[in-house]
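Quarterly update, task 2.4: zinc ion-bound model.
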Amino acid sequence: MTRTGSCLCGDITYEIEGDQLAVAVCHCEHCQRQSGGAFSTNFVAHGSQLTISGDIKTYEDKGRTGDAVYVLRKFCGNCGSPIVSELMEPEGVVAIKVGTLDDTSDITPDVQAWCDDKQSWVNLEGINAMDRE
Ligand SMILES: [Zn+2]
Ligand SMILES: [Zn+2]
């Protein structure tokens, strides 16, 4: 199936072909800062499944160490909506922000990551925790 999505202002639109590898909640501090929310929810897929239209901006997130680029955070430069994060590791994997999908009716998280950064009130019981360095 083909999914569609867009940023808040509509300058950026995208299509995803096929199914997700997972739907992952990320509690990491950088996702909290970028989204302004308590966590991000991501449609994880191969980059080849995603086609973006519009002039998207990229922020090179160097992660906690500040050494190497850890993830490319792509967002709309007009309205600021985060659209997708391209992971360096594993390479070729993208995390599309579920809140920008046009239809989220069948989206349920399978996994949650970076639980050490989780805000104290957030309780996602029943969703597998995947902790990683
Ligand atoms: Zn926009
Ligand atoms: Zn994150």
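Highlight for this quarter: The longest strand covers residues 40-46.
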